[in-house]
Design a protein that fits this description.
This protein is about 45% helix and about 15% strand. The chain has nine helices and eight strands. Strands 2-3-1-4-8 form a five-stranded parallel sheet, sandwiched between helices. A three-stranded antiparallel sheet has the order 6-5-7. The chain binds BIS(adenosine)-5'-pentaphosphate and magnesium ion (MG).
Length: about 220
């Protein structure tokens, strides 16, 4: 299955994609994580992406598209994957569909995690991520067992530089102008599933898994 996770910054795309990835045994392909990894490696793409990410703006379509198409052409994505953060513009969605058509593949579902703005800001301001495996934690909602350390891989936790109040506002505004039109695109294809993301992490996961009709592990 190829599934797209849609939602505003802080909606829980990464959190839910991590859960689904384990439940469905699918790779989690997060465009933001790929850009941050490229930046750690000081590649040209990473440094270019940083100049946009720091302002809360989208990286140009052609850069994001090239990076994702290269990633999903790797063998681990041959039978499916979970897209997180891509597509984010109508153009990205159209190019992805075209590339999939040429390979005889199709996007199965697009899941929109809906969360009110005030809650998004609270989630982003309290978020800590693992520098090694990128799993998100929250100081109140999902704290790590040991402060500053990842439960899964013992990696160091850090706060993203774009989780500052001014940049969060810009990211939200860009989501509403540039990404929201994608919802209609997938709705017209009968692929859109909306879930209430303003519930606990496990409740949201259960809603998504039930909408996808996937058996959930006990
Ligand atoms: P990206 O990394 O994709 O960031 P984003 O879309 O802004 O989304 P976030 O990762 O901030 O939020 P999330 O929905 O994953 O929430 P999370 O699960 O962490 O992109 C960053 C930048 O890269 C962009 O601004 C852009 O510059 C660039 N970029 C990326 N993709 C691009 C593309 N395709 N084209 C162009 N540019 C691109 O959860 C947030 C917090 O809430 C966590 O602390 C979590 O523990 C907590 N939480 C989650 N769910 C719940 C819940 N149900 N209840 C309570 N707390 C919860
Ligand atoms: Mg994320």
């Amino acid at each position: 299955m190829y599934i797209i996770m849609l939602g505003a910054p802080g909606a829980g795309k990464g959190t839910q994609a991590d859960i689904l990835s384990q439940e469905m045994n699918l790779p989690h392909i997060a465009s933001g994580d790929l850009f941050r990894q490229a930046l750690e490696e000081r590649t040209g793409v990473g440094l270019l992406a940083k100049s946009y990410m720091d302002k809360g703006e989208l990286v140009p379509d052609e850069v994001a598209i090239k990076m994702i198409l290269e990633r999903i052409n790797q063998p681990d994505c041959a039978a499916g994957c979970l897209f997180d953060g891509f597509p984010r513009t109508l153009h990205q969605a159209e190019v992805l569909d075209k590339a999939f058509r040429e390979q005889g593949k199709t996007i199965d579902k697009a899941i929109y995690i809906e969360v009110p703005n005030g809650e998004l800001v609270k989630r982003l301001s309290g978020r800590w991520l693992c520098r090694t495996c990128q799993i998100p934690y929250h100081i109140i909602n999902s704290p790590p067992k040991t402060p500053g350390k990842c439960d899964k891989c013992d990696g160091e936790l850090y706060q993203r530089s774009d989780d500052k109040e001014k940049t969060i506002k810009e990211r939200l505004s860009i989501f509403f102008t540039q990404t929201i039109p994608i919802l209609d695109y997938y709705k017209k294809q009968n692929k859109l599933i909306k879930v209430n993301g303003n519930l606990g992490i496990q409740e949201v996961a259960r809603a998504i898994i039930s909408a996808l009709k996937v058996p959930m592990s006990p």
